[in-house]
Specification:
Histone, subunit A, 4 helices, 103 residues, nucleotide-binding, single chain
Length: 103
């Protein structure tokens, strides 16, 4: 499988990358090799392979979940630029509930 320059540009657009023509020419063969390797992996029989979360044989070392002294609510909020009685106030990221319900 060989990618065209337009294919590389489409992939770059999907990845939100701005590439120069020189970068498209340089990256095209590299992406083609990567896709070839992925095709090889797709041919492997993984029917009897157990799913795993990591390739390393590690045991997590969890600390005990113990109650320790912490900040009071007032201390945590004392330097907040905007707050109400018990919470940080932040500007809406995706709009407000009122604007969503009007659609």
């Amino acid at each position: 499988m060989s990618l065209t320059a337009d294919d590389v540009r489409r992939l770059a657009l999907l990845a939100r990358l701005e590439l120069t023509d020189e970068e498209v020419d340089a990256i095209g063969p590299q992406v083609t090799k990567i896709l070839g390797f992925v095709e090889q992996l797709a041919l492997l029989d993984t029917e009897d392979v157990e799913p795993m979360t990591t390739a390393l044989d590690l045991d997590n070392r969890w600390r005990a979940d113990e109650l320790v002294p912490s900040l009071t609510n007032e201390q945590a909020l004392q330097n907040a630029p905007a707050k109400d009685d018990s919470c940080f106030l932040v500007p809406p990221v995706l709009g407000t509930a009122a604007s969503k319900s009007s659609h």
